[in-house]
Design brief:
With 506 residues, this protein is α/β, with parallel strands linked by helices. 41% of the residues lie in helices and 20% in strands. The protein has a seven-stranded mixed beta sheet with strand order 16-17-15-14-20-21-22, with helices on both faces. Strand 1 and strand 2 form a beta hairpin. The longest helix has 25 residues. The protein is globular, with a radius of gyration of 22 Å. The termini are far apart.
Length: 506
């Protein structure tokens, strides 16, 4: 049996490639920033959030080549390649497979007016019923309608509709492919059948796009094999199987081994993702994606900003932490973590709404601080940002609970999961045990396990979990500050409701 699996996680900001053995041990990794399209005043006003498609491929092939070089393995020993990426947005190619527009990211909001149109036309409710979710402007359907109305020169030359990972699979294998999870989670499938729907394309106002949809596969099925040309770019062996893959949020569930009932997977990264696998569709959920088998759904409640709020804070208001970090020769994130750990909810009145990106709790929501006065310390503001991020996750998890999902524990993933301070804050606010897996790139591990299932390295997903997933640490909740958290969360939620009329009026 071949010894290795390659997992690739293509995010909106960077691509990560990790080589694993079949026991889930990471042998080598590489990452590279994507080429984001520069935001101008006009593109920002229009809601554009774009990435260079060929830049993502460049980053991917560079990372694969670097991982093989660093590991020193024979590439022929790689059993399969698995790829996950952000869902939604859209990456369109022409009849020759070349991108004919910049890739739209899931936070792209150019189609906000299209969503209003669906509401006025009476089609939005019908769309939501078919997709078993809540359509937002950054999904492929509305963006494609925007192209039809605003850039017919591009729209008329669309050869195939792809998502990010599908373009990478195409570049590796020459096959135009899609998977049920990622397309289902991007509002492109009828969730009652897990198939394409002409009615859905009609409701989107893009009926001609039905014939531009690629072949649909299960996530673990093999979409194709590495071509000679791709092998030359990457160092992979010709003929290496490439799995159809999945959205990064399902890959995080797989990499965390969190498929059991009662476990919620928290992805605290760019997006605020909260998800659990069940046998039911939840009305009003952000999405009910096809999950790891027939009759299984990934029940999701999410918005478009979690740890990215902390990244924003570090760039815009992180000068104090950076100066301290330079003085002590540590990371400024270490300094910020210390400040969070030194605070407790009874020491401050400052609150933060972590709405720096769309989709959010409202189409016009923006981030904000409350209760700052002349005596407010920097440490209080840092703590408020962290607490506000966890409060937003709680808001989503409470939705899942109230919808009937049994939630008894959480698996925390994303960059924040590396910090014990953050993990404990999640446990204390959610009042459930929070576990962190022994892997820094959980999405890449999930993609690798999925490829391993497709290549028969593992018998099934459960076998992959047993062999490749280990819990690094468990954080049990403390009730010491529970009354303070409850009071602060009620105020945080109340302020959000108070802002709704203002957002409505904008």
């Amino acid at each position: 049996m071949k010894k290795y699996l390659l997992g690739i996680d293509a995010g909106s900001s960077s691509v990560k490639s990790v080589l694993f053995d079949t026991k889930g041990n990471a042998l080598a990794s590489a990452s590279e920033q994507n080429r984001r399209v520069e935001v101008t005043e006009e593109s920002r006003r229009l809601g554009f959030e774009e990435v260079d498609a060929d830049g993502i491929w460049d980053s991917t092939k560079n990372c694969i080549h670097e991982v093989i070089r660093k590991s020193g393995i024979d590439a022929s020993e790689i059993a399969a390649v698995g790829i996950c990426s952000f869902g939604n947005g859209v990456l369109i190619v022409d009849e020759n497979g070349r991108p004919n527009a910049k890739g739209a990211l899931s936070q792209d909001y150019r189609a906000a007016k299209i969503l209003e149109k669906y509401q006025q036309e009476g089609s939005l409710e019908k769309i939501n019923k078919i997709i078993a979710g809540t359509l937002f402007a950054g999904e492929p359907g509305p963006i494609l309608r925007w192209y039809k109305e605003n850039r017919p020169d591009i729209y008329s030359h669309i050869g195939s509709i792809l998502l990010c990972k599908d373009y990478l699979i195409y570049k590796l294998t020459g096959e135009l492919s899609a998977d049920i999870n990622c397309f289902g989670g991007s509002a492109l499938l009828d969730l009652s059948t897990f198939q394409y729907s002409r009615e859905l394309m009609d409701l989107f106002g893009i009926p001609e796009m039905y014939d531009k949809l690629p072949k649909l596969r299960e996530s673990a099925s093999i979409a194709g094999t590495v071509t000679e040309k791709a092998a030359g770019y990457t160092g992979l062996s010709v003929g290496t199987p490439v799995a159809a893959g999945m959205m990064d949020i399902l890959a995080c569930l797989v990499g965390a081994g969190a498929a059991d009932e009662g476990v919620v997977t928290i992805v605290a990264g760019t997006w605020c993702i909260n998800e659990t696998q069940s046998t039911k569709i939840i009305p009003g959920a952000s999405a009910n994606q096809p999950s790891l088998g027939k009759g299984l759904y990934l029940n999701c409640s999410y918005t478009g900003a979690s740890a990215i709020n902390f990244d924003w804070f570090g760039k815009a208001l992180g000068g104090t932490a950076r100066m301290e970090a330079v003085k002590r020769s540590v990371s400024h994130y270490d300094v910020l973590d210390e400040m969070i750990g030194q605070m407790s909810p009874d020491q401050t009145e400052v609150l933060f709404h972590p709405f720096v990106a769309q989709p959010s709790v409202h189409p016009n929501a923006k981030a904000n601080f409350f209760n700052i006065d002349q005596n407010t310390s920097y440490r209080e503001v840092v703590y408020a940002v962290a607490e506000g991020i966890v409060f937003l996750h709680k808001w989503h998890i409470d939705f899942l609970r109230n919808a009937g999902c049994r939630i008894t524990s959480a698996r925390l993933t994303g960059g924040i999961a590396k910090s014990p301070v953050w993990a404990q804050l999640f446990a204390d606010i959610l009042q459930i045990p929070v576990e962190v897996v022994d892997c820094d790139e959980v999405g890449a591990l999930g993609a690798a396990i999925t490829a391993g299932v497709g290549a028969k390295t593992y018998q099934d997903y459960q076998d992959g979990f047993r062999q490749a997933v280990r819990i690094r640490e468990r954080f049990n909740p403390s009730s010491r500050y529970l009354p303070d958290f409850e009071v602060r969360y009620r105020e945080w939620e109340h302020l959000m409701r108070c802002l709704k009329p203002y957002w409505d009026a904008k």
